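User: Before I run my own analysis I want an independent prediction to cross-check against. Here's the chain; please return only the structure tokens and, at the end, one sentence I can use as a sanity check.
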Amino acid sequence: MAAVRGWPWPCLRALLRLLLLAGGGQRPGAADHCSWRGSGLSWEPRSRAVEQVHLRCTEGSLEWMYPARALRVVLEPNLSSARHTTVCIKPASDFQGASIYVEHAGQLHLVVSEAEGARPHHVSCFSAHTPQRVALFLQASPQRDISRRTASFQYELLSNQSAAGPEFKKMALVEAMCRPCDNVELLLAICSSDFVVKGSIRNVSHDSENHMSHVDVSVQKVYRQKNRIFQQDEASGDWRGPIRTLLQCKVKKGGGVFLFTGNEHFGEAWLGCAPRFKDFLFIYRAARERGANPCEFQLD
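Assistant: Structure tokens:
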């Protein structure tokens, strides 16, 4: 968590009274159950109720223009059997006008302050003590004028993740393990990853401030991708795309053809298993002969 500060009981008690006044209704606005977009200017000026928004997906976004008073956001995914243990929030680069708190055990704890929200690539993660229902509280900052401010962020609910360590380690991406995958992990990765592509490394750049490395991949074949991260360049006709990993993994540019796998978080591809393609072929064919492959994979 970026910072944790409990609110004084008198302030909290007043906020809880306002929450009761809200009556649990869904805040009017543009919503698709995963994302919400609304404005504080549309609220009743004399109302003291805390407006509420219910989002029912494991990932989405929220955009609150002209923040006023407070907004309660309840994340309750429609997955009865899933247990999501970590919530990650990525504020937009122009995040302004509010701070984000999480409700836990009758207190509000600061997750993202207005100042922290403006940091590029900033991601805050925390444990979800009630996996099926996580309540966030957005408190609008005092404003002296009506200039436009927007408090917007993306959210993801992750399972089996750890919220310990520096900011990007808080994502606890199992695909950013900084070690070669074993055969079982590799065979599972080609079945369950958000993206699976064959290609080579064009370039690697490092971002020490945000503890990340950026791998520019020249793609020979896209086997699967969740979104259009890997695209064809209109000028050259070549397929390429960016993949991120942790700086501590010390990724370097090297020759050869690889099978890149991984998952997407906040619209970005994060590196998982990445064996040399010839090594992957040997492992997959051996597993298929034994009937040990967890899924069928279309080879070249």
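Sanity check: The first strand starts at residue 30 and ends at 31.
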